[in-house]
Amino acid sequence: MSMTLSEELQWRGFIHQTTYKDIAVVDGPPITFYWGVDPSAPSMTIGNLAIAMMVRHFIDHGHNAVLLVGGATGLIGDPDGKAEERNLKTKEEITTNKDEIVKQYARIFDGQDFKLVDNYEWFKDLNYLDFLRDVGKHMPMRQMLGREFVQSRLGEDGSGISYAEFSYALIQGYDYVHLHRTLGVTLQVCGSDQWGNSIAGVELIRRMNGGEANVWSAPLVINKSTGKKFGKTEGGAIWLDEGLTSAYRFYQFWLNVDDEGIEDYLKIYTLLGKEQIENVLREFNENRATRIAQKTLAYEVTKVVHGAGKADDVKRLTNVLFGQGDIRQLSQADFTLLKDELPVLEFSEGEELSQAVTDTGLAQSKSEARRFLEQGAVYINGETAQPNKMLSSPMTLDGTHVLLRRGKNMYAVLVLRASA
To answer: Cβ atoms within 10 A of the Cβ of 143, count?
Structure first.
């Protein structure tokens, strides 16, 4: 028996706070709701993706989605959670970033109905005096000053806050007013960090339109093994844009998530049903060494963000690199992807393999490289290399590339230098 939306959102962990007195209201007639992302960067992150997945469930259960890209709010920047004033983005940066966010909306919500809006469209011609009279007049200063981040920034050790950033909640609140008036939006969905801004919109609608509006927020995803916000890595954020986080690296991130949080991640970040997830977890708990839960997660999330074709490619490539596939089946396209991730070295006929092992960083010195070769720890295209091996064109898998490995998982790509 399929779950209602309220049951599904509870089961998946998508409820933090809501203004609804009874969450079962989302199981009723279609609601027009909105979710917005500011183009403060040229890509969304996996933090945004969590809310996007929640939005997909609202759409799947028959509700009407309005997806907003913040061309206006992005020009100011949300100060909530920031200890210091943001550096303003140029209009050109915002325009470029907006285009990228819109592409990601299209990919994540492929095949689903939604309306796309940009708040710059209703702010660009808005007269400042009219805005103060018609909107600012309805926002109590006490409400704005009471925000925790404002108090922190204005406190003795705070860095202060500009009028522009202070006004951000008012600007975002007006988004809700405008969408309520023009599109009949009565619900904003968001992450828990946007609760304050969203409530500002609810208050403005009540005061300006005399209407009822609501908010539904999801909790931030936490890495249970570290207690920190999920997705923050030493290498920085995990982006949805392939130019910032390659599909291969994206897949590897999910493949290496912690066991403690794997059930949460499967529920939040995949569209697999309850029975499917329970079956995966049952198999995983019988033998965690298989990492079947992480493998399932990695494939499913990569499929949502980068498409099934790319998910298939990186899954196959990963299997080959970790000994579960035929290296001889690697294609030119596979090597193109690998060369973005691994050390790459050009070689000519007759060059010493030990030198290549050193130059690719698989050994610290030539003497160490020779020792690895003598120990049988160096592999060419998956086969143990002979100690005194010289590089040659017959070694290539496709006439151009050689896959070099030292130990279990240190790889490099060798590329045959084109003859003059």
So the answer is: 15
Residues 6+ apart with CB under 8 A from 119: 36, 68, 69, 70, 71, 72, 73, 175, 178
CA-angle at 350, arms to 348 and 355, nearest 5°: 80
The first and second tokens of residue 325, run together, are: 């596939």
User: Is residue 130 domain-shared with residue 250, that is, in the same domain?
Assistant: no
Instruction: Indicate if 266 and 394 belong to the same structural domain.
Output: no
Per-residue pLDDT at 80? 65
Sign of the torsion formed by the C-alpha atoms of 119, 124, 125 and 128 = positive
Phi–psi pair at 411, nearest 5 degrees:
-120, 160
Reported as a single tens digit per residue, the pLDDT across 5-33 is 999 999 999 999 999 999 999 999 999 99
**Does residue 332 form part of some domain?**
no
Look up residue 167 and give its two tokens: 């006004």
Residue 331 lies in a domain: no
Check pLDDT > 90 for residue 234. Answer: no
Q: Residue 190: beta bridge partners?
A: 217
Q: Looking at the structure, do residues 213 and 344 belong to the same domain, yes or no?
A: no
* Mean pLDDT of the residues in the chain: 90
- DSSP character at residue 229: B
Give the E-state strand segments of 175-331 in sequence order.
187-191, 214-218
DSSP state of 393: G
Single pTM value for the model: 0.88
**CATH code at position 123:** 3.40.50.620
